[in-house]
Amino acid sequence: MERHYILFDTPERNLLYPFTYTRPIAACRVGILTIQEKWEHWLGTGVSHFTVPHLQEKFPLRRGDDVMMNVLINGHIMPDEQLVATIKALGPDEELYKDNHLVAKVVQGREVHLLPAASRKNYTGPVAGIFRPWDIFLQNDRAVREDFVLLTKGRTSAALPEGCQVSHPENVFLEPGAMVHCSILNAATGPIYIGRNALIMEGCAIRGPLALGEGAVLKMGTKVYGATTLGPYSIGGGEIKNSVFFGYSNKSHDGYVGDAVIGEWCNLGGNTTCSNVKNNAGVVKVWIEARQGTEPAGQKCGVMMGDYSRTGINTMLNTGTVVGVSCNIFGAGFPPAFLPSFSWGHQVGMTGYRLPEALRDAAAWMGFKGRPLEDADRRILEAVFKETNTQRP
């Protein structure tokens, strides 16, 4: 019987704010690929999303017909060979649990639901996933290595150009159209994946693991420490360490970002620098918006920045700062450790970003990369603006 695969969001999706304000959990990037793309590679077919109403238009749910089996898979979780085989072996009205958390279930027909199944099985293998924002950079080393194998197995890399100094070239893979100019690539510490039509300019110094997505750019003299991901059409400059840029975002100039997660369509102004370690080497506590309190994120945690947010030149962000969706940050000194979505300005005199101007500016920034702000994107931003209205001045 044909199977249709659906990645579902759980109620804990709000613990991944600000990133899940604008996407389902499985649309988050960890490693080279998003969680959705990982499942599609492993399953050999497309998947759809079962998520909250304001995201369902952009990330549609595709239902099977009356004789098809819908296989629902927890969007927090990343696939591996054992888990995929176990899910494929599930029959109608069976579900799979790990430590009392639903991993997958099979529902026959057009109805899609998460009601208890007739038969419950417990999974004994390991499970990796993202449950807090900092899990994205903590899981990135493992994810880049696994995705590298998944994407390059049985394939031959495009040729590395002369003029580069390369350690362990067998761990470096260039997709067609990728260009690397006069740079140092050290893949002894982890694989280096350079996507289609990506560009590494002269004088870059890279220690893997690194994932450079399609059309992404590292500007001249950039220093990159793994495990770092620059998603599609992102731009990196200055110094970057163990950070994930989902895609279409810019850190084009000097400044430091470490142990950080940057959403899509963000821009960090020149010399923006983000602390990732406290001066007393203590545990970094990060604001969890859905719980209106902090949680420990370990000794190293930089900025967590939602989609469409930007910083002015010379902005300083403190350890573990959380920036919501569509914030415009500028001014002297450190901003607060939590900036709600659609914040405008800085600590003194901070106001709300008016929605018409926020939509206008988002469209303008997307236009730099030749992409329109679609109606579905506008409606998502309108929904986030409404949901977060009480958090702003």
TrEMBL record:
GO terms for molecular function: acyltransferase activity; nucleotidyltransferase activity. Keywords: Acyltransferase, Transferase. Gene3D superfamilies: Hexapeptide repeat proteins (2.160.10.10). It holds the Pfam family NTP_transf_4. The keyword Acyltransferase applies. PANTHER family: N-ACETYLMURAMATE ALPHA-1-PHOSPHATE URIDYLYLTRANSFERASE (PTHR43584:SF8), NUCLEOTIDYL TRANSFERASE (PTHR43584). This is Glucose-1-phosphate thymidylyltransferase.
